[in-house]
Amino acid sequence: MPFQKMILKLQNYWADHGCAILQPYDLEMGAGTFHPATTLRALGPDPWKAAFVQPCRRPTDGRYGENPNRLQHYYQFQVILKPSPVNMQDLYLGSLKAIGIDAALHDIRFVEDDWESPTLGAWGLGWEVWCDGMEVSQYTYFQQVGGFDCKPVSGELTYGLERLAMFVQGVDNVYDLDFNGAEGDDRISYGDVYLENEKQQSAYNFEIADTDKLFEDFKKAQDECAKLLEAKLPLPAYEQCIKSSHTFNLLDARGVISVTERQAYIGRVRDLAKACCAAMYEKNGWEA
Amino acid sequence: MSDLLIELFSEEIPARMQGKAADDLKRMMSDKLKEAGLTSDTADAFATPRRLALHMTGIPTSTPDVREERRGPRADAPEKAIEGFLRGAGVARADLVEREDKKGTFLYAVIEREGRAAAEVIAEALNDTIRNFPWPKSQRWGRQSVDPGSLKWVRPLHSILCLLDGAVVDLEIDGIKAGDTTHGHRFMAPEAFAVTGFADYKQKLLDHKVILDANRRQTLIRDTAQTLASAAGLELVADEGLIAEVAGLVEWPVPMLGSFDASFLEVPEEVLILTMKKDQKYLVTRDPATRRLANKFIFTANIEPSDDGSAVKQGNERVLAARLSDAKFFYEQDLKGKLEDNLPALEDIVFHKDLGTVADRVERIKKLSRYLADFIPGCDADEADRAAELCKADLVSGMVYEFPEVQGVMGRYYAQAQGESDAVADAIRDHYAPLGPNDECPSAPVSVAVALAEKLDTLVGFFGIDQKPTGSKDPYALRRAALGVIRLITENNLRVPLDQVIRCAISDYYNASLDQLGLMPKIRDCFDASLVIGDNDPEMMKLISSPSLMAQLGRQDDLAKHMIQTFGFKDILDLVDFDAEEDLENVSIAFERYSKIAANTKVATEELPLFSAERLKVQQRDKGVRHDLIDAVFAKGDDDLVRILNRVSALSAFLETDNGANLLAGFKRAANILKIEEKKDGVSYGKPVEVARLGAPEAEALSGALARAKEAAENALISEDFEGAMAALSGLREPIDAFFEHVKVNDDNADVRANRLALLSEIRSAVNTVADFSMIEG
Lengths: 288, 778
Hints:
With about 290 residues, chain A is α+β, with helices and mostly antiparallel strands. Chain A has eight helices and nine strands. The mean pLDDT of chain A is about 95. In chain B, strands 2-3-1-7-8 form a five-stranded antiparallel β-sheet, with helices on one face.
């Protein structure tokens, strides 16, 4: 199954189960969880069901295109179901079936993996899902987001799309993935689409990114976020929080943040995230 | 008598929690039922990834009937009092009976409570158990989680099966109603089915591809893995912990043999094993002939696949191959460079904010290893220095970054690859050891030097910044480090003057920080400046003119630092020309770091030895050595651990003998009398005895014997002949016994009395040459 078809199958499957199919958020972020459709929608009492692809940027994971498994830019497919339905595990397994994973032929396992995001002040319990010994998804019941108890609890599914596609296609190198399913001259591989990007972005992340500018960006995002919170605009404020988080990740990749500073920076992003979540409560008149 | 079956069916329970959860379910239910008056004959609990089950037999059908009589007011009491009594006892007026006794006629309420049906009690107990279950971590889920009081479980709880003699116990928790059905294996037999009791439950589970008993799952995994390995001509590496974990990940274990490309065997096996075991939960195998790791592993699936298993096998092999290629890539990358290439990167790793970077630490460990080499027979100081220099270099290698557990191990491989000697390579691997009381303790001289230095540096540093362990808190594992020092010294019989070594380690701390900042010339300027101030300062002149202090401080630089500390930095700085602001700032930083350590030097020099002594006592006590004997020897103020233990063992053997026991008794008697008389008189009798005025032959004999014994003991001690010293003392038993038998200490003649008391005091001092006998019990 080609990479893009797998995405389409997942979208169709979750659309059939009542999810709004959203498009990627237009900001750089380290994980789909940062998408406002996950983080902010997990807050408060209103039901919500959504599924979307989110490109993720992890500057430190860049390998200049030389490692067959690691990318600084990759895709996650996110599903958020609020409240978590009783049959969520079955729904999830149904989605694997939809992309061609036969549960009678493969060994699918739910292995303990509790999730915590220090930058979002969030945690939940769940598993990493193994298929024949390979982790293909993260499955989490959110308990807290932005320091607030989730009432009700949302269930979050995160599929690492490249890895899943490598499994489904039986490919050992991510760049060899069949992207579009066409033959001959029309064939497009994952490498055709992203190899050069990995090379250039790795160089940017590790070597070129101007750290003075990044430090400045971080500060500006922080200030802007505070200003927007004062104006009681939590949605744009949260965007600044996402920006600060990505700026921090870039600084981290440039190796200019010491161990002690690291904690302080994570703490600053968390403070922004928490403040945005608190502003959401206030704006919507929810009870914490 | 009834039979109870409970099953709590949920989403996947973490493997590590299952065993305790089964025990908790059994304990909580048994306790609660017992409290209500229902004691069972047997209780067995089980756990699989998706269920906790409990089977109890011999439960009474109901709790016992209770009959209680309560005495009330007199029959002729006012109506109000009677009404109050009725309310309190919860009975009607008609139910009261009258009884007469000596004091008159009283009203009695007879309250009879019938026993409660077991089912009712069980429902309550189970409700209570589920709501208060001690999961290490639990969660809310679903629609009901809007309510903060909603049920919490380890993962969403789906159903409750609760049967008492085959009948469903009426029970509902957070919308889940107890029933008689459960589900089989998630993929192979997912349908619901009803059961009638435990035997039926167990059998039907088996039919539905679930083995209830974790022990049976473990046995099956172990036996099948064994068979698979043998069939491949290999030896299974035993790993009961891993088998138990795997048994918690599957309801229907299907072990299979997989393999990986033999070229991966070039990667150090520690890494291969770690990847297979920790990341993938695979059992590993060895070639029985070569003892080397084989390229075959055993994984345990939770399914009998619909094909012959090749899809599952292929999948697992591919995952492993991807992980091993990663490891191989890192290994090959690391081998391209040399360990010393990594050293600059250690400057970026903070060891502790007040103790500098890992590079600083390496610098100190180097110095200290070299210093310690002198005390370690066969230790080449240059090799110790080299091993110390490289001992942390693998921390920034690609491999250790990915697999932190193989720190040291990788360093050894890389050292060998770049042609370091075996002694150096082994020391790099072993310098973390011993990590506990049962871990292997290094014995190769170079390894011992670096291992000791590493631990002493940690101890001195954290004591220096006053981060001592308190109670159960020991975040920097200082107890373990101290025990490591003790084991390294005593098990290798090293004669190390610990106090001196600690002082050396302390000075390394501030010297290193100043040297590194290139500040020694500036410090010398400061020294000159401090002399200018010092000229007018009598305290300073005293310091400079003190030869012993000069000797102690050794170099001019040290003296400068001492001056800075004594006179305050700012004053001195004012007198020195600095080229740049930055220089000044660096000197300030260095000074602050130095003064912080200097201020706490006292803590390190005084408390660290005590801490080490305390650890030694704990360690020896665990080995069955009497702590009072250790105290008695420690009181002598020795810092040579080997000598201390030799002394303790000689003392212990001596006290086992008749002579020893009697001498101890004689000493205690003398010490007691002395204590009482000294207190009464308010004077100390620790003065020379005038033999001529002892006034009794036995006293004179004892005096002579004491002088001889003391001299002999002292001579023996010089050559560390502790048995000899004890033997010298043992000769005192007779004269002491004779003295107490025939001589009255408190003679009427004050002069004689004082002399005899002085004689007792000499017993104390003679015996104390060997150990402080006052600390010995008995």
